[in-house]
Amino acid sequence: MKLHLLPAHSLLALLGRGEVSAEEVVSSFLHRVEEVEGDLNAFITLFSQDSLTQAREVDKLRAKGERVGRLAGVPIAIKDNICVQGKRMTCGSRMLSNFVPPYDATVVRRLKEEGAIIIGKTNMDEFAMGSSNENSFFGPVKNPFDSQRVSGGSSGGSAAAVSAGEAPMALGSDTGGSVRLPASFCGVVGLKPTYGLVSRFGLVAFASSLDQIGVLTRDVEDCALLLEVIAGYDPQDSTSIDQHLPDLVLEMKKGIKGLRVGLPEEYFSPEVDPQVKEAVLRAVNQLTLEGVEVERVNLPHTTSAIATYYIIADAEASSNLARYDGARYGYRAQGTRVLLDMYSRTRNEGFGDEVKRRIMLGTYVLSSGYYDAYYLQAQKARTLIRKDFEEAFCRCDLLVTPTSPTPAFKLGEKMDDPLLMYLSDSFTVPANLAGLPSLSIPCGMTREGLPIGMQIIGPPLGESQILGLASIYEQVASKGRDGL
Ligand code: GLN
After folding, report:
1. 388-441 per-position pLDDT tens digit
2. Domains in the chain and their CATH numbers?
3. Is there an atom of ligand 1 within 6 Å of 441 CB?
4. Whose C-alpha lies nearest to ligand 1, atom 4?
5. CA distances for 209 relative to 273, 320, 335, angstroms
6. pLDDT (tens digit, 9 = 90+) per residue, 27-38?
7. Is the whole-model pTM more than 0.70?
8. H helices present in 134-292, as ranges
9. Is 178 marked active-site?
């Protein structure tokens, strides 16, 4: 049995029945890492020995008949901008290449409490800024379906690791699409929860009004399971939502008859790759056969989303990244004599090009004389984008769109043209600007053999409906594949 190809819920069933040990599970994923990591570059740091030791402990507890957690013995990969106590966390940057956090992020604490085994920290675009995972100090992550192509970013390592069977589940972060875009490029399920549903305590801040930790899994059931474990109120994050979350795995099995799905015209524009459009519309068609009602809707301010996002995200980033000055932690330039020289050389040597570009743009849009024209204007546009969604959700329960206008592109293809790169995020940033939950699920392949992702966006706290629709689609699609 190829354990590394199984989703976590199947592994948990085998573990629960004593048919495999946690040690066998972890070993099988570590072997897989050895096999494919040379091509993929999905991990920055791997915890092979520690994870085997923890697996043996889980096995001992089980053998004694003691209570084990809901994810006991399941390996998980964590994006390298989420703190794991005592383990190096780089954020894909030279700036933090020697940084060891002294505490666990809340999500990591919750995973540990449920017995999950952290097998490593995944590669990412530097400080989560990017759409292709080519902005990492540790080199790009390659797409498991085609090593000439990008994995998508910025959680490219997490998406590639799950896709290639290096881990059954992973955590990522999503500020403007960084969970969903790589999920769609690598053919896995990726969910960005409602803003505030998952604690950001211990996640390195990029743009605090947009950042959310999200999950990447092989299937929808795992997505619900992992979200249940990490979600919930946390007094250590002031934006955390204090509300009880329903049992997602149960809720999502309720059925979808009569569910109203909106197709926003703006997401099916002529710039979208015809194969992507076709695959998503085919999937929608299959859903109508399951009782879903479909109608066309409009989100007229979608065209302003990229400009709005890149002003707000960069403004917040320029302020959040001011803390990396070489004085407190992380990289420090050598041989400087004056404080200002130490600051500027540290930042010049420690940050890569894209991060510098964001800091400069962000500082510019916040500076006096330009604040009103850019930052304030972007905040107004953000309100209009949010209102578009509010109106659409008066008419329908969920929205369905392509996750990205194109499938995975070639390595290097967009590196010299930042604007073209930013346009990859056209369909993912609106959900962040409006704080909405949104999921990407594989919905077919291109003729070249590249995965295509379908995005399902819901109203605030609409995770269980999103998962319900995704789970029905998953069943329909797998029937189609098996020719039943
Ligand atoms: N690609 C977007 C950016 O570069 C989104 C990144 C993210 O979600 N972390 O800002």
Report:
1. 999 999 999 999 999 999 999 999 999 999 999 999 999 999 999 999 999 999
2. 3-248+400-443 (3.90.1300.10), 303-388 (no CATH)
3. no
4. 130
5. 31, 11, 37
6. 999 999 999 999
7. yes
8. 156-163, 180-186, 220-230, 248-251, 274-289
9. yes
